[in-house]
Specification:
Layout (H helix, E strand, L loop, with lengths): L1 H20 L1 E5 L4 E9 L3 E6 L3 E6 L3 E5 L4 E5 L4 E8 L3 E5 L5 E5 L3 E5 L1 H11 L7 E12 L5 E13 L3 E14 L5 E16 L4 E12 L4 E17 L3 E18 L8 E20 L3 E11 L7 E12 L4 E12 L10 E14 L1
Antiparallel strand pairs: 1-2, 1-5, 2-3, 2-10, 3-4, 6-7, 6-10, 7-8, 8-9, 11-12, 11-22, 12-13, 13-14, 14-15, 15-16, 16-17, 17-18, 18-19, 19-20, 20-21, 21-22
Length: about 350
């Protein structure tokens, strides 16, 4: 009997203690809610309750609020105040440990974070190099044997790591195709890739450095390396559309070679060219499932402005589910004066297929 009595007393005590330690919200219509304050974006207050999960409450509907644990309140002036909170209808009162009561008008409250959310936010300001990556991989393969004897392989990789202050982008695309049988030989063998780093100086102005690399067997191009650096401007920047304009200088190094044939001698050419870099990078989201990207770079030679190169990369990905999508990609590389006689100035890659997205 005594044991049952003790258990009952403990149950009542724990229930009262849990209720006393809970955050509470009183609405203007008289309703009273208890739970744990999770966050606020300045318009809605999110309260996690035991009976209904997370509830979003309009600040206009809140009469009084109090928290048992310290929260982080960010004002419209980017000032962060930490402490337990109460309210008086027009102000949020933050009870700090060192500065006493700090009154923040509700109209100036932009964010409220829990301790866990604040720790995650501070970590996001300085992520490690392996964190924050998003991107996708697509591979296409076709093989025919018998009356036909062909092999085709295309690949594409994009990876992007963006923080509040900088952005790192890595990309690659390739195509390989060969015919067997009587007319055997490689009909396409091109690899393109690069890396680009941006650093924000202001909300609009940023600096960039990049390297773009191309190999094209049928053009006789062993490797073209274009190293660029300069300044850019975030012309359009919102969640659905971005447009960056940039300009700077570059150093281009090209190595070409061709083996001897029955009618032509072997040839080898090395070129080192200073140049100008101009370009634009565009992204737009159509609804929640489709995103289109496009970038264009123009590289005129400083030694001879009639000679230039340009690159165009465009693509779209439509989500099928969280990690799988359908992609379409287009890449073009142009050079005005390829030194290997008989080769063309333009090389284009067009591919489509499944895209596997990833994030870390």
């Amino acid at each position: 009997m005594k044991i049952a009595y003790i258990v009952m007393i403990l149950t009542i005590f724990l229930t009262v203690a849990a209720t006393a330690s809970a955050d509470s919200v009183t609405l203007r219509n008289g309703d009273h809610l208890t739970g744990t304050i999770i966050a606020s974006d300045g318009k809605d207050l999110t309260l996690k309750t035991d009976f209904a999960g997370e509830i979003k409450i309009k600040w206009d509907a809140v009469k009084e609020v109090s928290s048992d644990k310290a929260l982080y309140v960010v004002t419209s002036e980017k000032k962060t105040v930490n402490g337990t909170i109460t309210s008086d209808g027009t102000n949020l009162i933050v009870h700090t440990s060192g500065s006493g009561e700090v009154r923040v008008p509700l109209s100036q409250v932009t964010i409220v974070r829990s301790a866990d959310q604040q720790a995650a936010y501070e970590k996001s300001l300085h992520p490690s190099l392996v964190e924050g990556w998003k991107g996708g991989v697509n591979i296409g393969f076709a093989l025919a044997r018998g009356n036909s004897d062909t092999t085709n392989l295309s690949t594409g990789v994009t990876a992007d790591r963006k923080t509040l202050t900088d952005e790192l982008t890595v990309y690659e695309s390739s195509i390989y195709s060969s015919n067997g049988g009587v007319n055997s030989g490689v009909t396409a063998n091109e690899i393109m890739g690069g890396i680009k780093y941006d650093r924000n100086f202001t909300k609009r102005l940023f600096g960039f450095v990049s390297g773009d690399f191309t190999h094209d067997e049928l053009q006789g191009l062993n490797l073209r390396s274009i190293y660029s650096g300069g300044l850019g401007w975030h012309w359009v920047s919102n969640p659905n559309t971005t447009l960056d304009l940039l300009g700077g200088v570059n150093y281009t190094r090209e190595t070409y070679s061709r083996g001897a044939t029955s009618t032509t001698p072997a040839m080898s050419v090395n070129r080192n060219l200073p140049g100008i870099t101009t370009g634009e990078i565009f992204m737009h989201k159509f609804g929640a499932s489709t995103a289109v990207t496009q970038d264009f770079y123009f590289y005129p030679d400083l030694n001879d402005i009639s000679q230039y190169r340009f690159s165009v990369d465009a693509g779209s990905v439509t989500k099928i589910n969280k990690w799988l999508g359908w992609q379409l990609s287009f890449s073009d590389r142009y050079v005005t004066d390829p030194p290997i006689v008989g080769t063309k100035t333009n090389d284009v890659i067009l591919s489509t297929g499944l895209n596997v997205s990833f994030s870390h």
